[in-house]
Structures are given as structure tokens and as C-alpha cells.
Amino acid sequence: SPYALASGPYAIAVAPNNAFLYVSTATGIYLYSIGTGGVPALASSTPIASDTAAYALQVDSTDSWLLEASGVGYLYAIPINPANGALVATITEQHVALSSNSPQKMAISPDNKYVFVAMGNAGTAVVPFTAANADPLPTTISTVIGVKGTGGAAVSVAVDPSATPRLFYIGEVAVTAGTSNTGGLRAFNYSSLSSTLTEVSGSPYASGGLAPYSILPTPYSTNPGAYIYVANRSVSGSTTGNISGFALTSTGTTYTLTVLTTTAAAGTYPVSLAQDATGNYVLVVDSGGGPDLEVDTCDSTTAGKLDSAFTSSTGTDPVSAI
Fold it and tell me: Is the peptide bond before 110 cis (omega within 30 degrees of 0)?
């Protein structure tokens, strides 16, 4: 490490089975196998897909489809071999048109029923998905959730990680009232997707910044999704971003988000959040550096609070880490 790429990268995705990963670049999507100790190896110098604008990637939970939100205006479902991640030539790549050429983030629901794509000022696409079908995508997208605020944009999306999802989330800019830190987190009842879409009472919730570019409902805990963290890429009056948080509680099927009283510091332009599989660490990637990677732990006394554990640089800032 570092491993050379053919051109600048846009996104990466690790398969749920941890056996392979994909890197989208300006010259196509490349496949890597993951060996002992996590060491990646390029499977082929030829990209498995030639799209030069794959802005968001994710592998479904069956390890059979690589989903790709493209800057050419399509959501693609690329058939892959669960054993090695290679393209399955006997199944045709599927696609459906998006109403935007600017996809930001993408998420697949844990039950493999929907793909959500944040599309900037075009809103958020909700796309039915059936992994067991040879054609897992619909012919057209019937549900697009428009942005709520004038001049707003959907810049992030996430789904509750429970086996039976409770909520899904959209991060939007210019969605709350005021003249500063007008970014917000919108929360919707997942079950309402099959009937009349319902937004949770109190939504949108102020995210504590201007641009909520990443949403992390914590997947690895005794109560998955009990905390939701939001990376604000920019904050009014500050040169750096921050990480705000919410606690999820429920009474039956009525859900409430309560903002945490503390925020965690971040570097310049935090754009991505993740939690490690032990559930002990939350990782933050800062595209503007200062640092490039920061790792936080959960406070031992204050529920939901994040404490800085360590940081790391990946090169001479800014390296535009994604």
C-alpha cells in the first residue's frame, strides 16, 4: 500500500463476504480479490465494467450483484460471481434510468428490496430490487422523493440496518429554517414504502451543519441502528466539518430521533462514515485532509458520544480521500 490505479478513483465497495472489492475510476470499474490479512490483489488489468462515471458502488447481501449509480444517468445492476466477484457473462447487465446525472450516495436495504439513490437537487430515487431475479430492477422508477427545501439537494442516504428495517434516512442541504447550518436529516418509515410514504414526526432534524454528506446508522451493536451519525461536510463559521449524532427510540411502530448533546470534531470536508465489525470504532474520511482518516471510539460514560482514538494521513494533503 498504496496500490497504483489506472486513473483517479470515485468509489469503492467491499462485498459482504469480504472476499473481493471494487474500485470505480475514470477508466472503469476494477476488481480486486482480498487475501490473507486483507491484502488486495488486482484480478485483471481489464476493468469488469467500462463506465467512467461510477460515482457510487455497493454489493448486495447475496454477493451476486454490483449496484452502480452512474453519472451518465443510470442505476446499473452488474451480475457477479459470489465466489470470486468476476462478471457473470451468461446474465445480462441490467439498468434503469435515473432522473439525474449527479448521483451522490447509494444504499441497499438489508432485506434486498430497495435501492436508494441520493440525486442532488433531483431528490432521492427509491428503486425496487429483487436479487433473486435475472432482471432485478424495474423498467422505470416510480418513486422519487423530492427535496424539501427551496434550493435543496439530497447528498446522502442510508437505511436502518435491522433485519426488518424501521426507517430510512436522507441527508439534504438547505432543508431547515434559518441562515446558518441549514442541513438536515430526514427520516421516513420504511414500512410506508408499500403504501403511503410517511415522514417521521419532527423530520427534518437539523444536522448541525450545512451539508450532511454521509449517514451512519450503526450496524454493529446489540441494537443495530440505535445511533445515527451524520458527517457534515461544512459548518457555518468553521473551516472544518463535524460529526453529529441522534439516538433512535420507539414505542411500537412510532419512532423518535433525539439529537445527542455532543458533536465530534472532524477534519476538512468529511464525506464518509463507517463502523468496524467489532462495533468499537467509527471511522471518518476527510476529503480535504487534516487528517485524512480519523477513528473514534464510543465514550464509556456518555451514551452515543464519540471520543477521538487516533488519526492517520494517507499522503500530502489534500489527497482528496473518498
Answer: no
